[in-house]
Amino acid sequence: MSSLVDIARYLDEYLRIREVPDEPDAVNGLQVENSGEIGRIVAAVDASLETIADCGQPTSDHADASPLLLAHHGLFWDGNVPLTGRRLRRVRALLDHDIALYAAHIPLDVHPVIGNNVVLANRLGMAVGGWFGNYRGVPIGVWGDAPADLWRRDALPVRLREILGGDVRLIPGGPEQVRRVGIVTGGAGTMVAEAREAGLDTFVTGEGPHHTYFDAMEWGVNLIYAGHYATEQLGVQALAAHLSTQFQIPWEFHHHPTGL
Known about the structure:
The chain is of the alpha/beta class. The chain contains ten helices and 13 strands. The protein has helices spanning 4-14, 49-55, 85-96, 106-109, 116-123, 155-164, 192-197, 212-219, 228-231, 234-247, and strands at 2-3, 29-32, 37-38, 40-46, 67-73, 100-103, 130-132, 141-145, 169-172, 180-183, 202-205, 222-225, 251-253. The protein has a six-stranded mixed β-sheet with strand order 7-8-10-11-12-9. Helix 7 links the parallel strand 10 and strand 11 (202-205). The protein is elongated, with a radius of gyration of 19 Å.
């Protein structure tokens, strides 16, 4: 067991929660307290009611351990709304099961070690060569040279399916021989122009609007949509594993895919 205060303080510093800009409704950091002690960590992409209910089910090995739910998308994305309906059901489930909730959005995306973008690049066998793109003054994406086994344009979607699962869509606007790949996980399809300006021929993200098909085709960039949920599984797992090592607490990942 470890103190929730100590864990939250460590995460705030490690993720630079107070320094990295984000949307107001992200509310990064400790969102819900529990009784004060943490005995296990549950990593999840979304703090949905399904995830919270699942998190509240004790495992056989840690039946009495109060969990810390570590989420990429926290509790407050629907804004400053009354504590009724869906919001109440989520909060009640957290309190009833003594679950603490900590959320990290952009601070997790851009982390140089356990961030979504860096971890996906590493899983592709691609060394990070630099950063690109702008989110509120912060470079958000990573790029690198494609490893030799991914030089064929059609090879990269296959590898992404193996790593992430789910559907992967290639918009073949760029060259058949891939050289320099950029990654911004989540919903960054509108950053095709920034990928092009950074000298990238291929850009991997989760999802984007309809017009990005033409952006990719007319600007000469291979655009790969691998799913918002799917591309953002890896960072929260890497963070949970890191936290487990630091505090000697077991961790698990709860998989609730959206298909988006």
